[in-house]
Write a structure and sequence with these properties.
globular, Rossmann fold, alpha/beta, single chain, 6-stranded antiparallel sheet, 36% helix
């Protein structure tokens, strides 16, 4: 059974750490200080840690460094009252598994906590920062579905101040679909391959750039994806091919963002959302 260590400071009166759903299959232990957590880690291996919002981002990063000196493979999920883009980038560089800020959504947090605890094949370098500033970040993402889930969360934290929550949710849905297409079809779900992802914020737009290592595709010639004229029949073809449920990425992305641009080869994509 996977083991989760919850570090919940005494001063933290937020009940989010005590009511996360779906953790019944995890062995969960609680400690109230970072020092107690380090003592527990020295004695017992844990797969993942959940850190309370009562501590600062800087304290959490310093604690994580100490924790990994004891347990190099431990994954960490941070909860924070708030996080600047610079703090989120620092978390990415430190290979934090996920970051969540208020308002907290228990289902989303629990989903990433479960994946952090259960993903024994997790590669700490699944998301690598090539270069970063608050306005432009370049990443290499391993072709692993968990890496996609993690990156969607990080992108939401990086850019949440730009749009109202409903708009941000739709943008992240389009981002996720294009990223999954790149991982699944471009990289063939080969975790040894990378997908290039850039997020670029200008004064007028937020643009996501994707490049996968695959041979590309010809628009309109993909039997496993939905189209506006035929949004259903691809589902059976995906089942026959053993693909995950989905195939709506190309159609959805065109409806959820302002511009979708494909390179003629088909292995590079731009998603553009104009700032209001």
């Amino acid at each position: 059974m996977a083991r989760l260590l919850v570090v919940q400071q005494i001063a933290d009166d937020d009940e989010i750490l005590n009511r996360l759903p779906g953790l019944e299959n995890l062995h969960v232990e609680h400690v109230t200080t970072a020092a107690a957590a380090l003592r527990r880690l020295a004695d017992t291996p844990f797969d993942a840690m959940l850190l309370s919002p009562a501590s600062s981002f800087e304290e959490d990063l310093a604690f994580l460094e100490q924790a990994r000196a004891l347990r190099p493979g431990v994954r960490a999920v941070f909860l924070a009252d708030d996080a600047t883009p610079e703090a989120v980038i620092a978390a990415l560089r430190a290979h934090v598994f996920a970051v969540f800020t208020r308002p907290f959504h228990p289902d989303q947090i629990a989903d990433l906590v479960r994946k952090a605890a259960d993903d024994h094949d997790w590669d700490s370098h699944g998301i690598r920062v090539l270069g970063a500033s608050p306005h432009w970040i370049s990443l290499r993402v391993s072709a692993h579905l968990v890496s996609a889930d993690r990156l969607v969360t990080f992108m939401g934290q990086l850019h949440r101040r730009l749009f109202p929550a409903p708009t941000m949710d739709l943008l992240l849905m389009a981002f996720r679909e294009i990223l999954l297409n790149a991982i699944e079809h471009g990289a063939g779900l080969d975790a040894g391959k990378d997908v290039r992802v850039d997020a670029i914020r200008t004064q007028r737009a937020l643009t996501f750039y994707f490049r996968d290592p695959g041979p590309g595709f010809v628009a309109g010639a993909l039997p496993h994806v939905a189209s506006a004229g035929d949004p259903i029949s691809h589902i059976e073809r995906r089942e026959q091919a053993g693909l995950r449920p989905g195939g709506f990425g190309l159609m959805l992305s065109r409806q959820l963002v302002d511009e979708v641009l494909y390179h003629p080869m088909g292995n590079e994509v731009l998603l553009v959302k104009h700032l209001e």
